[in-house]
Amino acid sequence: MRAGREIQQPKRNYRTFKILLILILVLIIAIAAAAAYSYKSAKDSLDISFTEKTPQVEAGGEYAAMDFVKDSEGEVAPSAEFLNAEKTGSKEMVYTVSKPVLGGLMTASEEYTLAYNVVDTVAPLILWNGDGSVLQRYEKFDINDVIGYGDNADPQPSIEIDGEVKMTRLGKYPLHVKITDASGNSTEADLTVEVADTVPVYTDDSPRIQFADFVSSYKGDGRSFGIDVSTWQGDVDFDAVKKAGCEFVIIRIGYSADGKIEKDSKFEQNYENARAAGLKTGIYLYSYDNSEKEVRASADQIIEILGDEAPDLPVVFDWEDFGQFQTYKMSFAGLNSLYDAFADQLSSAGYDCMLYGNKNSLEKVWDDTDTRPVWLAHYTDKTDYKGPYVMWQASQTGNIDGIDGDVDMDILYE
What we know:
Blueprint: H1 2-45, E1 47-50, E2 56-58, E3 69-73, E4 75-78, E5 89-101, E6 106-119, E7 125-129, E8 134-136, E9 147-150, E10 158-162, E11 171-180, E12 186-196, E13 209-210, H2 211-218, E14 223-229, H3 238-243, E15 248-257, E16 260-263, H4 267-276, E17 280-287, H5 292-306, E18 315-318, H6 332-347, E19 353-358, H7 359-364, E20 374-377, E21 391-399, E22 407-413
Parallel strand pairs: 2-6, 8-12, 13-21, 14-15, 15-17, 17-18, 18-19, 19-20, 20-21
Antiparallel strand pairs: 1-3, 4-5, 5-6, 7-9, 10-11, 11-12, 14-22, 15-16, 21-22
């Protein structure tokens, strides 16, 4: 009898194991069913509503994707932070709506598409009207020498010229120009150019300002005072500059075109000596680049040139050839994208960036100056620029010990 019980024991163990396995399978199926039900319920509940069925946005503007979400059931993640409004046409933005399931073990998600139209209702802008320009007799006439213009969306607006300039004959010639973008918006202007044997030479006879007087005029809490220099200032005695009360210096690293930097002949000397004198330093690049690929290449060269010698202040992007803007074949939206690409490339290497612009370009061409740190150029006793800025270039006719001739003078707000 004892032996018989020992023979039956394995059968009972097998039966118990089988029951346990069945229970586990049932439990797994139940959990899977519950998970599937929870997932389906979560997925069925996902929803999103937009502020408009098919929004219409202006070309060249900046529109946050989330601004078009009216309501949602679930977390919303657009495929891009901003709508693509660089060019006109019908476009789409994809939004992913999601919810966590089972405490985050799973995520139910659904994609929704917002169709929108990018339109251009803004006329081209004349950036410089060369009315009164004097041209050298016998030279070839080029309309780009007497007018600068651009458009928010069209990189190549067309120009019609009513009138003729006879470059072999002295005299004044009235012209009427009409500039039209690809959407049919147009701007017109009149200007008169003169053909002469002698082109007048501009002489700057504005009063010079001593650095000490400049500081005295604008001193206040949270402000520091400095200068910006390039090869045009020659050999700078930065010890004398610092002794005169200067606290920082922005140094030109060079200028770029086609993604290649031509280094300022005084850059290394200025950068090394300014730092040795105990001055805070920043650098700026004067750019002629006209594509994102080019400015990224220029940014990479800045990183290579600086190496481990990172400046105290931001790297400044200075693009200001607005007198012949049309020759770059860029829209204003395209120009704005250059700064973004430049800053993105440098920020990935740990550098802060800043945008340089005069009052006119900051008001009419550059967008999103609320989020882009701005170095304002406006030569006046009291600026009426309404946008935010962290630095103000208030004079280009400053005098300071250590520099022969004029120098730009700046105020940094902290």
